[in-house]
Design goal:
The chain contains 2 helices and 4 strands. The chain is an alpha+beta fold and 97 residues long.
Length: 97
């Protein structure tokens, strides 16, 4: 399934800036950045549960915001339209290292 993860982390303190870096790093482990605080992650149910758990352990619920949008299974490609310069990876395609 495609999950869109968005977040807003308060960065007025050093701790907040560290949380922001940790959140981005966790999201990069599961998907690709499509905007500054927006990630597209193609995950199964178990991976989604792990992603949510990891992120919830990092964010401060009194200062930060996290949102998860579940866009569905294989049909998600029909729900996403991209216009602009940001290069998008085919997360279902072959991985070449």
């Amino acid at each position: 399934m495609l999950v869109l993860v968005t977040y807003d982390v308060r960065t007025t303190t050093l701790e907040g800036r560290r949380r922001l870096q940790k959140v981005a790093k966790i999201c990069l482990n599961y998907g690709q950045r499509v905007q500054n605080s927006v990630f597209e992650c193609v995950v199964d149910g178990k991976q989604f549960a792990e992603l949510r758990k990891e992120l919830k352990e990092v964010v401060n619920e009194k200062e930060d915001s996290l949102r998860f949008y579940r866009l569905g299974g294989r049909q998600y490609r029909e729900k996403v339209e991209h216009v602009g310069t940001k290069k998008i990876l085919d997360l279902d395609g072959p991985l070449i290292i």
